[in-house]
Amino acid sequence: MATFSAADGTSLAYHESGAGEPLVCLPGGPMRASAYLADLGGLSARRRLVRLDLRGTGESAPPADPATYRCDRQVDDVDALRAHLGLDRIDLLGHSAGGTLAILYAARHPERIGRLVLVTPSPRAVAIEVSDDDRREVVEPRRSEPWFPDAYAAFERLWSGSATAADWAAIAPFSYGRWDDAARADVAADHTQKNREAAKAYYAADAFDPQAVREALTGLEAPVLLLCGGHDVVLPPKRATQYADLFPHAHLATHPDAGHSPWLDEPEWFVATVADFLR
What we know:
The chain is an alpha/beta fold. The chain is 36% helix and 17% strand. It has an eight-stranded mixed sheet with strand order 1-2-4-3-5-6-7-8, sandwiched between helices.
């Protein structure tokens, strides 16, 4: 673990693993410590991973001003890390809500992006709507799985607006391609790794203008890889196609059996796909 100072003086931490050219990795959650990304399914054998703990998460200090948890305010933190690493440009990876931070960085500093990897990114910053019917299409093929009845009943309560906290926990299997020990461990770790107060501020009002973000991305010259899971209820495949179409130089890679964290579900595919793109 190493540290550097953000523009406002907040001490931020990052974690490195592997060797070679750096790949800066931004975690999702939102506002979950980067530890859950680990070595991204073995990607550290191909690139030097630089995992940033966002302010107030993991080993990074909380800021003096909680308003700086807002995602657009953290763009400067990413650029401070770039400068600290002594790089003119960075290859950047963002997962889920970290994808929002990654594209806000790319929109503000397009000349500083070498290659951009978006792993099941949140569609909020570009105003791509994911409907209940979209999610039904994703989850219906999983009826044969033993956990499906309880999880689907919870989903129906979410769609009807009558969900409880237990229902949010019950739908967890829908986020993974396989509901196995690794998936359960990831869910358990989320409870201890996420700064929930900071998460409330991450997508605060006025953090971004989706139309302005979309317009900025149409001019991004850097190559973009968007990874999608066939089982992902956050960004289903048909909506991932819409997302990729926003960029002039984007490749969409979809694994039908992966969920929202494809390096857990299909690590060999994930590593090969990302490494080939970065090479």
